[in-house]
């Protein structure tokens, strides 16, 4: 039986009337369910986002609080470290010495020729230079930390080097006496020691001679000189810690200006130790006249060199029987050396610091510098290429003979005239620098 077009239309109409409402209801229910599901998902998403925002804000709040607490703690630690932390050497106010005018002395530049500079090997620095029998001797050290530092006495002729003696710690100075014995000043983290090495046992035996005075450690020993009468003079830079070596002790005294440096004399005949000169703001160098009658002492903080009778005892720097031989120096004097013609060579450990001397009466600022640490303190001192690293003066009439410049360095630690040359030791360098005179 064939269905015509009219019949088909009627059947579809009847089907739509019968099934349509159910289909429409199903579609409506499905759409409503989908909407409810979508709304629930949107609500859950909104809730999650709100919860995440709450947690994020709480985390940020905790972070801000922790940051503020950390900043306050850091500020408190900084304030304590720079303002309140106890220091071993509280600074004292002092009067800044005048600056000497130009002397008009001849200027000599340190040689830039590598052939004139003698390398001593893999050492980290040179503390003292001397000559004996045509050979040059230098105290050179290894180890940046005082706890691991070891020093050698190196003998050289410019072509061959030999370490003839070694000590634990820092060998800050040495001198030969009339018998050929070697006198040494050695600094370790526990204090200073005056030692002797007999000429027949070099390299095998170093004898501690003086380790303390009146029950107290000697401190930062800086220099030693042997007189023609057999007496041995040695200097203690100041009553300060030696945990950072001689340079750290001198830098501390320069900032603190306690004036607690002393020069002593040891008599091997009766093994006695006596005080020669005190009240020095950094006793950093010694030189003894050839006849042994006049002792020259460099005063770091006062920028001067004292000249005293070597037989005098219990003198005070600037007091009775203690006159300034040189004053108003352009830098902070360190090592001293005399040649056979009576010419005194004065090395400058550092150039004069305008900041330091501007704050001579401001102990708070200098206390901050003392607490700031070694690295910060090093930035205050040094020698530029145009600053004098040493000067030479005739002890007979006080006339200035020569000014040495031309090399930038952290500091000039040693000076030694030898014939037509003058050798220099530089802080942080194992090479001996030189200049022709």
UniProtKB/TrEMBL annotation:
<feature type="transmembrane region" description="Helical">
    <location>
        <begin position="65"/>
        <end position="83"/>
    </location>
</feature>
<protein>
    <submittedName>
        <fullName>SMP-30/gluconolactonase/LRE family protein</fullName>
    </submittedName>
</protein>
<dbReference type="InterPro" id="IPR051262">
    <property type="entry name" value="SMP-30/CGR1_Lactonase"/>
</dbReference>
<dbReference type="InterPro" id="IPR013658">
    <property type="entry name" value="SGL"/>
</dbReference>
<feature type="transmembrane region" description="Helical">
    <location>
        <begin position="6"/>
        <end position="27"/>
    </location>
</feature>
<dbReference type="Pfam" id="PF08450">
    <property type="entry name" value="SGL"/>
</dbReference>
<keyword id="KW-1133">Transmembrane helix</keyword>
<keyword id="KW-0812">Transmembrane</keyword>
<dbReference type="InterPro" id="IPR011042">
    <property type="entry name" value="6-blade_b-propeller_TolB-like"/>
</dbReference>
<keyword id="KW-0472">Membrane</keyword>
<feature type="domain" description="SMP-30/Gluconolactonase/LRE-like region">
    <location>
        <begin position="206"/>
        <end position="369"/>
    </location>
</feature>
């Amino acid at each position: 039986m064939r269905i015509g077009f009219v019949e088909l239309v009627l059947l579809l109409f009847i089907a739509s009337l019968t099934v349509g409402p159910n289909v429409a209801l199903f579609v409506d229910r499905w759409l409503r369910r989908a909407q409810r599901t979508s709304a629930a998902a949107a609500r859950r998403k909104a809730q999650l986002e709100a919860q995440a925002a709450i947690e994020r804000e709480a985390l940020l709040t905790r972070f801000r609080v922790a940051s503020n607490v950390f900043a306050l703690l850091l500020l408190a630690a900084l304030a304590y470290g720079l303002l309140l932390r106890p220091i071993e050497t509280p600074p004292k106010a002092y009067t800044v010495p005048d600056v000497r005018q130009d002397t008009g002395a001849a200027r000599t530049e340190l040689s830039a020729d590598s052939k004139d500079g003698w390398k001593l090997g893999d050492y980290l620095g040179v503390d003292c230079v001397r000559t004996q029998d045509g050979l040059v001797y230098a105290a050179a050290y290894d180890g940046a930390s005082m706890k691991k530092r070891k020093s050698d006495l190196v003998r050289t002729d410019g072509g061959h080097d030999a370490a003839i003696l070694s000590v634990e710690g820092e060998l800050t100075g040495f001198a030969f006496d009339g018998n050929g014995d070697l006198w040494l000043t050695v600094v370790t983290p526990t204090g200073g020691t005056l030692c002797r090495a007999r000429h027949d046992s070099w390299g095998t035996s170093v004898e501690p001679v003086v380790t303390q005075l009146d029950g107290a450690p000697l401190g930062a020993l800086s220099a030693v000189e042997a007189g023609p009468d057999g007496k041995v003079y040695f200097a203690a830079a100041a009553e300060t810690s030696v945990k950072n070596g001689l340079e750290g002790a001198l830098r501390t005294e320069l900032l603190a200006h306690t004036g607690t440096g002393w020069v002593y004399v040891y008599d091997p005949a009766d093994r006695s130790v006596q005080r020669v000169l005190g009240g020095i703001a950094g006793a950093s160098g010694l030189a003894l006249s050839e006849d042994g009658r006049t002792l020259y002492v460099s005063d770091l903080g006062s920028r001067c060199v004292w000249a005293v009778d070597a037989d005098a005892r219990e003198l005070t720097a600037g007091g009775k029987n203690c006159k300034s031989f040189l004053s108003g120096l352009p830098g902070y004097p360190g090592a001293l050396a005399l040649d056979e013609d009576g010419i005194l060579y004065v090395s400058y450990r550092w150039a004069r610091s305008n900041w330091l001397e501007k704050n001579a009466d401001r102990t708070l600022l200098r206390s901050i510098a003392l607490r700031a640490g070694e690295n910060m303190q090093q930035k205050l001192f040094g020698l530029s290429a145009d600053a004098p690293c040493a000067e030479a003066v005739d002890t007979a009439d006080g006339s200035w003979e020569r000014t040495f410049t031309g090399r930038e360095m952290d500091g000039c630690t040693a000076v030694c005239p030898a014939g037509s040359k003058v050798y220099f030791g530089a802080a942080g360098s194992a090479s001996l620098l030189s200049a022709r005179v």
